[in-house]
Amino acid sequence: MAVEHTGTGDPTRSMALLWRAADREGRSGLSVDRIVATAIEIADTDGLGALSMRRVAERLGVGAMSLYTYVPGKGELVDLMIDQVLGEIDRPALPGGWRAKLEHVARANLALYRAHPWLLQVGTARPPMGPNLLAKYDYELGALDGTGLSDVDIDTLLTAVLAYVTGAGQAAVEAAQAPARSGMSDDQWWEVQGPLLEKVFDPQRFPLAARVGAAAGEAYGLGDPDRAFDFGLQRLLDGIEAFIGKR
Amino acid sequence: MAVEHTGTGDPTRSMALLWRAADREGRSGLSVDRIVATAIEIADTDGLGALSMRRVAERLGVGAMSLYTYVPGKGELVDLMIDQVLGEIDRPALPGGWRAKLEHVARANLALYRAHPWLLQVGTARPPMGPNLLAKYDYELGALDGTGLSDVDIDTLLTAVLAYVTGAGQAAVEAAQAPARSGMSDDQWWEVQGPLLEKVFDPQRFPLAARVGAAAGEAYGLGDPDRAFDFGLQRLLDGIEAFIGKR
DNA sequence: GAGCACTCCGTACGGCGTACGGTACACCGT
DNA sequence: ACGGTGTACCGTACGCCGTACGGAGTGCTC
Question: What's the mean pLDDT in B86-109?
Fold first, then answer.
C-alpha cells in the first residue's frame, strides 16, 4: 500500500466518512472518530512509519480486522487523519493588513507541521475534500482578500507561500527530530562526520563549500531552521509586497 | 525500517561507500554501482514504495541476501541513491548575474525532482555527505558569490530558495503524477468530486473558498503547477533583490 | 594440496495490509 | 418468550517486507 498518497478508495464512501455522515458507535465503543484520534496519536509520537492497523487496533483493545468495519482501509484512514488535524490550525480573525495575516498563515502552518510531522509525508495532490480542508482554504484566502488582486492571483500567491512553508517546514521539522531519532545531538554528529569528511574532502576543489560551509557552521551549527524559516519568509513577503505595489 | 530517514548505519562504512573506496566487482558482476543504479531505476519508475531489496536483487539476477555483501542495508542504499542522483544535476558555468544563476539553480533542482520524485520523500537533515552533495552545494553557492553578501547570508538565501523549490516541486511533481497513479485525469477527478462536494459544501459558510476556488478552477483546472512554480519563484527572487539592494 | 577469505544465498522470523468466512450480539416482529 | 436477521467483531491466512544466521561454493595464498 502506498501510504504516501491519497484518494485510492471509493470517493463516495470517502466523502461520507470525511463529513462524518452517520458515525455511530459499535458495541465495543469503536467509532471512526476514536480510530482516527488513535491513529493520529501514534503517527504524532512514533511517525507515519509506525502507524499500522494492528497497532491502532491494539491500542483500542480490539482486533485488527474490526477497524475495517469503520474504515475501508489504511489509505482512507490517513485521509481522515489529514482532514482531522487541518481542523486544529489556528484561525483567529486578525486586525492587521495582508502582510501580518499572511505571516500568521505561514506560522500557523509551520506549527501544524511541527505538531504533526507526518503531514509532510503525505501527498497533497487530490487532497481529501473534507470540511476542515475547505475551512482552512477559506480562512487563508482571507489574508489576501481586499487587496485588489484578482482571485487567480490571490490563489497563486497563497499557493506560493504555502509551498515555501512546506519546504522550509520540512527542513525545520527534520532538523528538530534528528537528535531524537538518531540519539545524537548536532554537535555529536559533526564530531563524527567532520573528521571523516576531512579525509575525503578537498577544499581546493570546492572552495565555496569550504568557506561558506565553515562560516555557516560556525554561525549556527548545522543551521538554525527557525531563523532560516523567518528570514526566507520575509524575503518572499517582500517580493509579494512589490507585486501588490505594482498593481 | 524507516526508509524516509537517513544516517542509520555506521558512519565510517557509509562514508567509504559514498566516496566509493574500494568498489570491486564480485564474481557474479555485482557492485555497489550496479546495485545503486538498479535501485534508482526502480524508484524512478515505480516509486520509493516499490523499492525493495528483493526487487533489486531479482532485477540483477541474484539472491536478495547477496546485496548485503555490498551494502549494509536499505537505509544506506537510499543514501547512496541520493548522492548518485545529486550528481546528475545540471551545473553549467553561467555568464549572467546572481538572479539568472539562482533561477537556474531553482529550475535545475525542479528538474531533478521531476526525474527522481522519490527524492522528495527522503529526509534532508543529516544528509549523506557524498561527493555529489558537496559539489552541488559548492556550485549553488556560486550563484550568490560576488554579490557582497556575507557568507552566512549567502547560505541562508540559498537555503530559502531551495526550500521554496522543495515545496513547490512537491506540488508540481505530485500533480504530474496524480493522473498516472490514479488512472484518472484531473477533469475526471473533478467530475466525480464536484457533485459529491456540492452536496456537503455550503458556499455561504465559505464564500471565499467558493469564489476563489471557482475562479482558480476555471483558470487552470486544479492549478497549473508549472506556472505557479515560476510565479512564486519570481516573487521570492524579487524579495531577494530588494534585500541585496539594501546592502 | 591445505587453508582461508570472501561471495553468494536458502531459510526463517517478526512485521505489514487486508481478503475471507465465521461467530456472537442486539434488535426486530410476532 | 422466541426465532430471524443484520451487523460488529475477529481468527486465520496469503503474499509482501527487511534482514539475522549459517552454510555452500569459489579462487587466492602459501
Answer: 96
